[in-house]
Write a structure and sequence with these properties.
The protein is of the alpha+beta class. It has a single domain, classed as Gcn5-related N-acetyltransferase (GNAT) (Aminopeptidase, 3-Layer(aba) Sandwich), CATH 3.40.630.30. A 7-stranded mixed β-sheet has the order 1-2-3-4-5-7-6, with helices on both faces. Strand 4, helix 4 and strand 5 form a beta-alpha-beta unit. The chain is globular and about 35 Å long. The two termini are about 10 Å apart. About 35% of the residues are buried.
């Protein structure tokens, strides 16, 4: 049985369940959320879309993708994933995430990012996690900074979103920095791992 990470906290990560489909659809079927994500996500986003996503996530290769529901209380309010690169970058992974708009600005996303990094660094051989938010997405950049990521530079005109060429920022965190960054989290963990990746 899967165990939840940090189950003593209001915010925790767990494996996706098919019963989350309606909450997932409600969270992501929002233009304000989608405007900060990459393209390819349907809009409106239906429960059928959510079920297909959950199916794909649960069947994904376990050593290349680590993706979980972000929960607050009993409710799935968003998604977070770390995706391993390949070839010479095989010990590097990219992080992506979002939460439903009603939960913005409450520190929930920062907590989820910290928990995800702690889990990946403890349970895999990944040594570097990076994220590339749009440069205009100040809230996402702040989440990464508060979670201990370092700003590494601006990727100029790196994407076309909503018909406009936009810059992206790149942030990263390195495994050998985790002890000081996540010591406070470790002290609050009741179960040392999520228990969904073997």
């Amino acid at each position: 049985m899967a165990k939840d990470l940090h189950e003593n906290l209001h915010t925790y990560l767990r494996e996706w369940k098919f019963g989350d489909a309606s909450d997932l659809a409600a969270a992501i079927s929002n233009k304000k959320v989608l405007d900060n994500l990459r393209d390819g996500i349907p809009y409106p986003y239906t429960e059928k879309d959510a079920e297909e996503f959950i199916t794909a996530t649960l069947s994904a290769k376990k050593d290349t993708q680590y993706a979980f529901a972000i929960c607050y209380g009993e409710k799935a309010i968003g998604s977070i994933g770390v995706f391993r690169r390949d070839n010479v970058h095989r010990y590097t992974a990219e992080m992506g995430y979002y939460i439903a708009e009603p939960y913005w600005g409450k520190g929930i996303m920062t907590e989820a990012v910290r928990q995800m990094c702690a889990y990946v660094f403890e349970n895999t051989d990944i040594i570097r996690i990076f994220a590339e938010p749009y440069a205009h997405n100040n809230a996402s950049c702040r989440v990464l900074e508060k979670a201990g990521f370092q700003f590494e530079g601006i990727l100029r005109q790196n994407a076309v979103k909503n018909g406009q060429s936009v810059d992206m920022r790149i942030y990263a965190i390195i495994k050998d920095k985790k002890e000081s960054l996540f010591q406070d989290i470790k002290q609050r963990i009741t179960e040392p791992e999520i228990g969904v990746i073997i």
